[in-house]
Amino acid sequence: MESRIEVSWTCHPCEVGGQDAEEDAAEGPACWNCGGPVVVTARPTVRITSGPDTR
User: What is the per-residue pLDDT across 2-54, written as a single tens digit (0 to 9) for each?
Assistant: First the structure.
């Protein structure tokens, strides 16, 4: 099982949030609504599975 790091963020002027892959973080995450700078709130690790859901 593989995993990747995500970047969770919030844009205070737009009052929206989002999540981007860490690989895109070199440029820094940007708001999907206004394209402006955001405040990073978390960097969770997300598991990536290639098989069927095991729930």
Answer: 887 888 999 999 999 998 887 655 678 889 999 999 999 998 888 887 656 65
Distance CA 19, CA 40 (A): 9
Residue carrying structure tokens 């860490």: 22
Give the rounded distance of the alpha carbon of 14 from its chain centre: 17
Q: Is the pTM of this model over 0.70?
A: no
The DSSP output letter for 22 is G
43 with 8: CB under 8 angstroms? yes
Question: Where is 4: in which H helix or E strand?
Answer: strand 2-11
SS3 category, 41: strand
